[in-house]
Write a structure and sequence with these properties.
Chain lengths: 117, 212
């Protein structure tokens, strides 16, 4: 593996710890679908370096009005299909919501409830 | 020297929270700064290049989180990132040196230098055997939270215990039939991956708490 790819791989791993990044959602997708980086690159029809670079992009909010333009912007820059990315991202977001992995807002809500009591 | 127009554009993307900012930062400067650090620290590049990547990642993510730390009027972005990455590398090396002295063992817990080896070997005294079993149990349950495979858990425990022999890791990975060079490469990659998880999730800190 080249030095550039290893740097991107480690950066992707860092980004996967933060729900602001696409790496976080891609990793959740992989866990739920029991696949790995190679599996996702096959789905997205891209090379490994595009996969890692994709993970470093901030995740667009699927419910925001600018979602499609953000999705297109990311897809175009990384060089992948926005349709395929849309499928993976929406599935990943559902997985995260169902698994309660995105606990930050839930925790804040719980904290607010406690304050009210 | 002031930042160039292209650098100011990237800085603007980072400051404005553009979704592509971090990717563009890596595209533009990632490889360049790793090479630069590698040239300045050839020993690190030879022995454990994962430290170079960690340093560059810390610098880039740090800047991405706090773009206000860069002043385009005073410096070029390239120079700023170089300085940040070099500073982070020095911190990593110092931390590693400190940990090396402590052999990565938990504070306030009396464990021998060859802790892992000694608990793997048969204990003679029933009491110490019980303590060892309990310790292994605590280690196992904490490591199970972070590592799915048994192989990773064993290797993580070995890293925590300060095991340095490639052959010991190669035995766990069942790659003894490979050449020494291949074993070293495989072991290094696996260790780097596990170390990153240990560091990111502060597993050693949690184990330390459990053992207390």
């Amino acid at each position: 593996m080249s030095s550039k790819l290893r740097l991107l791989e480690t950066a992707f791993e860092n980004a996967a710890c933060d729900s602001a990044f696409l790496a976080f959602f891609i990793t959740k997708y992989q866990e739920a679908e029991n696949t790995d980086a190679n599996g996702v690159t096959a789905i997205l029809n891209c090379e490994l370096d595009a996969y890692y670079r994709l993970g470093l992009c901030l995740a667009p909010d699927v419910s925001a009005s600018n979602y499609l333009s953000e999705l297109n912007k990311i897809s175009e820059y990384i060089g992948i299909s926005s349709l395929l990315l849309n499928q993976v991202l929406k599935r990943a977001v559902s997985i995260v919501r169902l698994s309660g992995a995105n606990t930050h807002s839930l925790l804040l809500a719980a904290r607010d409830k406690d304050k009210d009591k | 020297m002031k930042a160039s127009k292209a650098e100011i554009e990237i800085h603007f993307l980072v400051s404005s929270g553009d979704s592509l900012a971090l990717t563009k930062l890596y595209d533009e400067y990632g490889d360049r700064i790793v090479s630069l650090l590698g040239t300045r620290y050839p020993g690190v590049a030879r022995q454990d290049d994962a430290q170079l990547y960690d340093a560059v990642n810390q610098a880039f993510f740090g800047y991405h989180r706090n773009p206000g730390t860069f002043d385009p009027e005073k410096n070029t972005l390239q120079r700023f990132l170089e300085i940040a990455a070099e500073r982070d590398l020095k911190n990593i090396l110092e931390k590693e040196a400190r940990q090396g002295k402590k052999k990565n063992l938990p504070d306030d817990v009396e464990l021998e230098e060859k802790f892992w080896n000694s608990i793997v070997k048969e204990q003679v005294e029933p009491e110490s055997q019980m303590i060892a079993k309990e310790t292994i149990g605590l280690l196992d349950s904490e490591l199970a939270v972070h590592f799915e495979s048994a192989e990773d858990r064993i290797m993580a425990a070995m890293i925590i215990a300060g095991e340095r022999e490639t052959s010991a890791y190669a035995a766990v990975m069942q790659i003894n039939e490979l050449t020494k060079a291949e074993q070293m490469e495989h072991v290094k990659r696996a260790k780097d991956r596990i170390k990153r998880v240990l560091e990111r999730k502060d597993v050693e800190g949690k184990i330390k708490q459990l053992l207390k």
